[in-house]
From TrEMBL, chain A:
Keywords for this protein: ATP-binding, Nucleotide-binding, Transport
Biased composition (Basic and acidic residues): 228-245
Residue intervals of the ABC transporter domain: 3-240
InterPro entries with a match to the protein in the record: AAA+_ATPase, ABC_transporter-like_ATP-bd, Metal_Ion_Import_ABC, P-loop_NTPase
Organism: Micromonospora rosaria
Keyword ATP-binding (UniProt): yes
GO molecular function, one term: ATP binding
Residue span of region Disordered: 220-253
Protein name (record): ABC transporter
Length: 253, 290
């Protein structure tokens, strides 16, 4: 058996003493395409932030590619796609400039970009269908296109693992399709994916495993649950509020 | 208007000093604007003034002590910012006002005259010695080179700090580097435009450039060119109209901003009239942070 890509053992996270995740354990192996599902506030975003070291663990441990997270240095193997483009910077930046940031993990701080960097940036822009917008300022793009820019930035580093935080939330249908295509290409190339999602939409066929987070723990680890009740309707509009008390049975088969 | 005055060495030094600062200040300032810390230079300048006062009181080089004070101030501000506490705002205010009050008090305690304090508050380009000029030129060139050479990394850190951390970039080191270079820039610019006008040279050329540019690199290039223009033009105006050099440089930078703002708005209106079928409006941006 190969080394797990991600391995979380008895992980716990709390903010200001309030526990958000308690005793979470799971492994992701190479080639897995895992969706982390759960209601708002269930701790699913915190889970991936803890995996990446953006949030400290209060207990337990995380290993990345077999190395304890604290000692992990090969960050070029991971491509991270945050939920949103930062708070919005005051200075304009083109799509290409943002995507080019994705090469830094591989290239290091001091080396200037070379031909391989430019080729990888162009390929990543192609993969998300934004090649024609490369010279446009990101601020002029739609929300979905900005999200695709962030995915291209992660792909530009040619990672082995993609970690995405709600990549399709509030994204138009065209961008969701473009995103699903990019993800399929990445998985076909042997990539591993961990993504947080509220709804899977067009991503559903790509996902081969689901982790359901409920009240700070993992309530389900296995096949993607079938939507039940009115969630199953094709035109179901996901507008109702998700309270923390939502029954876990909604997601189980 | 004439250029006769520039035959005098003190005017040549003033011009060269202004040009170096005009180039270096926006090269650094663009990262501060990108991070929405446009006024940080102002705060560091206030702290530097305490260094000036301490230098005058202890009979040490005021500029040298100011560099040390400014670096301590800038690093403190960075550490407060990195902790991300809401009280950071108040901590910064305490630092700023403590810095300027300390400076005024220490300068008053030393034997120097008020004219000396004014030289640091509002700049005194025409009294730059050739030793001063060498310091300004060497530090200014170093800052410009660092800002250009590290542009991809500094851009990444200022654009999306969390992403930079997950990329394995030395985020803390880069942030501290930015704090230290801000302090050094403030101190060398202090002689040119003064503590009270330093931020203007870091921020106004960037604000002017980004009205017409589309990318980060083009904004940086244009801002540096505008900084050079404002510095050179400001000294020329000051020499001929006998106005304060620092104020002339800053007012010219602000005049450029207004000209570009008005011209840019006019151009957009004209383009809209000519092409009534505008590009499809993008869906509303969602910039809420999760």
């Amino acid at each position: 058996m190969s080394t797990p890509v991600i391995s979380v053992t008895h992980g716990a996270v709390g903010y200001d003493g309030r526990p958000v995740l308690r005793d979470v354990s799971f492994t992701v192996t190479a080639g897995d395409v895992v969706a982390v599902l759960g209601a708002n506030g269930s701790g699913k975003s915190t889970l991936i932030r803890a995996v990446l070291g953006l949030v400290p663990l209060t207990a337990g441990s995380v290993e990345l590619f077999g190395t304890p997270q604290r000692r992990f240095r090969r960050w070029h193997r991971i491509g991270y796609v945050p939920q949103r483009l930062g708070a919005g910077s005051g200075v304009p930046a083109t799509v290409r400039e943002v995507v080019a940031s994705g090469r830094l993990a591989r290239r290091g701080v001091l080396r200037p970009p070379g031909a391989a960097d430019r080729a990888a940036v162009a390929a990543a822009l192609d993969a998300v269908g934004l090649a024609d917008r490369a010279r446009d300022p990101v601020a002029t793009l739609s929300g979905g296109q900005q999200q695709r820019t962030l995915i291209a930035r992660a792909l530009a580093g040619q990672p082995d693992l993609l970690v995405l935080d709600e990549p399709t939330a509030g994204v138009d249908a065209a961008s969701q399709e473009a995103f699903a295509t990019a993800l399929r290409g990445f998985v076909a190339g042997g990539g591993t994916v961990l993504l947080v999602a509220h709804e899977l939409g067009p991503l559903r066929p790509v996902i081969n495993r689901a982790l359901v987070v409920h009240q700070g723990g993992i309530a389900h680890d296995g096949a993607v649950p079938e939507p039940a009740g009115h969630h199953a309707e094709p035109d179901h509009d996901h507008v109702h509020p998700h309270g923390p008390d939502e029954p876990v049975g909604l997601w189980s088969r | 208007m004439s250029i006769e005055l520039f035959q005098y060495p003190y005017m040549q030094r003033a011009l060269i000093g202004a040009l170096v600062i005009g180039l270096a200040a926006p090269a650094l300032g663009i990262y501060l604007v990108q991070r929405r810390l446009a006024l940080i230079g102002d705060g560091v300048g206030h702290v530097a003034l305490t260094g000036v006062g301490a230098g005058l009181l202890l009979n040490r080089s005021p500029v040298l002590v100011a560099v040390v004070a400014a670096i301590i101030g800038a690093v403190t501000i960075e550490l407060v910012r990195a902790r991300g506490r809401t009280s950071g705002d108040l901590a910064l205010a305490l630092l700023f006002y403590g810095g300027i009050a300390g400076g005024v008090m220490l300068v008053g305690l030393s034997d120097s005259t008020n004219a000396n304090l004014n030289a640091y508050l509002f700049g005194s380009l025409t009294t730059i010695s050739s030793t001063d000029l060498t310091t300004i030129a060497v530090l200014g060139a170093a800052i410009t080179v660092i800002m250009l050479a590290l542009r991809p990394a500094l851009f990444a850190v200022c654009h999306d700090e969390e992403y930079a951390r997950v990329s394995g970039l030395p985020v803390r080191t880069l942030n501290l580097l930015l704090a230290v270079t801000t302090a050094v820039t403030v101190t060398i610019a202090m002689r040119a435009v003064g503590v009270l006008l330093i931020s203007a040279l870091m921020v106004v050329p960037v604000a002017t450039a980004q009205q017409v540019t589309r990318g980060f690199r083009s904004t940086m290039t244009a801002a540096m060119a505008l900084g050079l223009f404002a510095a050179g033009g400001g000294i020329f105006v000051a020499a001929n109209a006998d106005t304060a050099p620092g104020a002339s440089v800053v007012l010219l930078a602000i005049a450029s901003f207004l000209v570009v703002a008005v011209a840019g708005a006019a151009w957009r209106v004209l383009r809209r009239r000519r092409a009534p079928v505008a590009a499809p409006s993008p869906e509303p941006h969602e910039v809420v942070l999760g």
